[in-house]
Amino acid sequence: MSLLWLRFALGCYLIGLVYAFVALTRTSDLFSRIALHAASLGMVFHFVSLTELVLTDRVVWASVHNGESLLAFLSMSFFMLIYTIYKTTSPGVVVFPVVFFLTFVAAVDEQPVLLTQYVSHKGWLIAHIILIFTGYAALVLSFGASLLYLLQERRLKSKKPTSLISFLPALEVIDQIGYRSLLLGFPFMTLGLITGSVVAVTTYGRMDFLDPKILLSVLMWAVYMVMVFTRWNSGWRGRRAAVLATFAFVAALAAWAANYFSTMHRFGAS
Amino acid sequence: MRFQLIGVNHKSAPLEVRERLAIPESRLPDCCRDLTAYPGIEEAMVISTCNRVELITHTTNGHADLRGFLHEHFHLTPEELDSHLYEFREKDAVRHLFRVASSLDSMVVGEAQILGQVKEAYATARAVGAVRGQLDQLLSRAFAVAKRVRSETAVGSSSVSIASVAVELAKKIFGTLEGKTVFIVGAGKMSELAARHLMAHGCASIFVANRTYERAIGLAQKFNGQAIKFDDLYSTCDKADIVITSTGAPHAIFRREHGEQFLSRRKNRPMFFIDIAVPRDVSPEMAKLDGIFAYDIDDLQQAVSSHVADRRKEAELAEAIISSEVERFEARIHTLDVVPTIVSLQDHLETIRQAEIDRVRGRLGQLSPEQEIAVEALTRGIINKVMHTPITTLKSAAKESEATTIVDVVRRLFNLQVKGKEAEQAAAKKDEVGTRH
Asked: Catalytic residue at B50?
């Protein structure tokens, strides 16, 4: 059943995806409203799907697909939060495709695989998953915002008359969205890594820093920290911030992909 | 609907001709009076702005010699004037006035000033009694149409002056201008105007630097700002989010190294340079820096013209609104046209009824109050029943083109005379007709 709801959600997010592509070429108030409603409806289905998962007894959250589904949901929540504050749907240009992709992968088939190892601290594990995914979602948003910043900066610099009419919010607003997501995500990411370490240590009794998953996660966190620091210290934004955000995003993707290679952090019983 | 309109505007006539026709505000009331006194004209008003001079009239037969009036009044020969004139009648005159009031006929489509000017012209003509019935109706409708166009289309929304484009650009960069700081470099009329716009949109403080320090002080005082010595320009400039620069310097005064300095001191918060100086004050090298947004006069001009193009697109929407409004107004006026006939028909039959009652009263002898009422009710009932069909026919004919024929037939059948006074009161009596019938 959970998968069915997720597929409904996917249908709704598809509208968001189409919006993301259309919004790049032209402005349509009506369409952005439709996309927003579709996304909200999608979130309802998505929420039902996640709730059903939680209600099932086991820690199925730890399956790869459910993780993706959770991440998609959290990213959408961030998007909605931004919409509530700034009344702009433009981060959707980045968020919708990412969310659609994640939900799509999660909705393809059922994968009820659990952690290979017996996890003694279930509470820590759940905390780890939620914290780290919130951090990821904030990172997605921040990455999206930095791309939008670049886009808007280019529009303003190009001085084409059309640059005045655009779906993008003001440059400083985009900047704020990105910076705030970054600030918000950082503690989550940090705590997520700490709880993850706790789970690893209690399960395996040690931390293998050469494990690709752990290595990449630490790298991602380091980039994240550099981003926060340069922004706070010298106000890096625009191109330089976008490069860093892309780097962090790629590191995050790599860290995610490392699930398939890691010996410590595995979902499947493969 | 016997409206007639004649005039010249920026498209039909060159400035030299418009100048000769322009009527100073103080002379407008006299001109309206002269016009209403002219043969064939019942009501009149005159719009005179720098872009147009128009006479709007309601005539007795729809063929007043407005050209003749212009020739006489302005002492111009037909050769000098006639080729620049446009003249509209009836529906076309209504449409033209609606377009003018909605700012679709303006040089800068969508500018809001014209509506105010039409309103003033209307007030002036009304004050001297030159606008009464039909023209009054037309103008109130024109104002309503203008309002509708403004609210339902974006014709008036995009800004068009360089100053307002600058404000819009600043908003695209900073979101809100609340609390932002403006720096005027080189005191000039245009930078003052731009600064005024920015302050009106929430900018909090202002610095002024000028080669002549006294002028800087003068301008700073106007805005409650702070004058800065020109030598301190580079050390202060980073405090400003928006810099309006218009010095007469032969070379760029803001170069790349300055930009880098500003940005590092500002922790890379963006800066917006409005460079209205020719030659430019901001070097292209500096404008390339991330975080520096520099718009020169050409860039701003380009933005202005693109806005004008946007307005044109919206104007098409507005034209559709106007067309439907012209139809509505025409239908309304036609209904008003038949009202005098209906009123006189009712009066005519009422007179007959009264006369007949008086005639037989002697033969009826003393009537009790109940009987009086019964006789009244009987005679009135007959009249109302007889009148029902002709009145309905007249009202429905009003909406079609055959109205005048039917009105004519009814008048001749009942030998009705519509007096001028009655015609004027027609509008007022319209409601009464509704209740009586």
From this structure: yes
